[in-house]
Amino acid sequence: MTSTPRRRGADRTEAIMRTTVELGQEIGYPKLSIEAIAARAGVGKHTIYRRWSSKGALLLDSLLSLDEPELDFSYTDDVLADLREQAHAAVELLARPPVGPLVQALIAEAQHDPQVAAELKERFINPMAGKLVKRLRTAQEQGHLSPDFDLDLAMSICSGPLYFQFLIIQEPITREYVNDFFGALFTGMSPRPAARGKAVRQDR
């Protein structure tokens, strides 16, 4: 039975994205080129350019096509444990080749490619941030977080140190680091005990 043009197109797209990840792991993103990907995948480079405008756009699609966990949050009675669990899963994913180095390269590429930056934000950063804010909002509604804590700010605070460790100083993110970081963070985000009694006014 012969395959349909649509099926052949899907197979070709899958082969191109798989080749992008494989070559990126083998030679590194700086040496990766559309020409090299086309040659390895057995297609013309114009076939790639018809679908992707740049190497960065192709890498983004290729990484998002990987069969990796969704990094969703659990919803138990312990929000701190749920955040730590999700962060541990994310750290393990980034430590597993070829994901970590290629994600670092993609974020670097987004700094000078506005289209890649916009797609990365729309397709990965915003959805992940939304999941985190939703989990924090549930905890806040249940009284596990301070009711006056800004959740968008909390999301930035939760994410910032992990990205700093991963992207800026590029040091391993250990389970101990994740546990200590969230423990320190929740000291400030937890509900404050209500003041006991009334303040005594001192007349002078």
TrEMBL record:
What keywords would UniProt list here? DNA-binding, Transcription, Transcription regulation
The organism's place on the tree of life at top rank: Bacteria
Which positions fall inside the HTH tetR-type domain?
10-70
Family annotation (InterPro entries):
Homeodomain-like_sf, HTH-type_TetR-like_transc_reg, HTH_TetR, Tet_transcr_reg_TetR-rel_C_sf, TetR_C
GO terms of molecular function:
DNA-binding transcription factor activity; transcription cis-regulatory region binding
Residue numbers of the DNA-binding region are 33-52
Q: One Pfam annotation, family name?
A: TetR_C_11
Coiled-coil residues are none
Name the PANTHER family for this protein: HTH-TYPE TRANSCRIPTIONAL REGULATOR RUTR (PTHR30055), TETR-FAMILY TRANSCRIPTIONAL REGULATOR (PTHR30055:SF148)
Q: What is this protein called?
A: TetR/AcrR family transcriptional regulator
- What organism, scientifically named, is this protein from? Streptomyces mesophilus
